[in-house]
Known about the structure:
- By secondary structure, the chain is mainly alpha-helical.
- It has helices at residues 15-37, 56-75, 79-98, 106-132, and strands at 43-44, 50-51.
- Strands 1-2 form a two-stranded antiparallel sheet.
Amino acid sequence: MEQRPGTPRHQRPSLSSFLSLLAMAGIAAAAWAAWLGWDQHRDTHPDGSTTGPYEAWQVIGLAVTLLLPVVWAASRNLRTAAVFGTTAGLTAAAYIDWSDDASGLFAVGVAMVMLGTLAATAAISALATALTGTRGAGGRGFGGEGVGGAG
Length: 151
């Protein structure tokens, strides 16, 4: 079948795309370990209630730390790695960190981490792409795969 000019061609992911995705997942998991992985202590207040194990500054630090690699990857046309790699890394780290919870409610928390990371990294990647003028193949959509948006 002959490819007509101006029509998107289906492209298979390259090895470098896969390695970029793995690198972003590794960065996200390492950031989780650095900011949250060491703190397993819940704080008990005078009224008997407990909070934690994380403080707000730890979670903010994690988010700010991941902002730079996500923006960097998105601005270099690696939006798929920025979004899905970061999401996979944080989701796996949360699962590993919380899976010893006997109640099973950790799965709800892991799902919330996954959905929140997916939404935040997608928004940040879209913003970084808009600000840097980075476009995929043919100037089309997310990751250059021809998804979304008419071009």
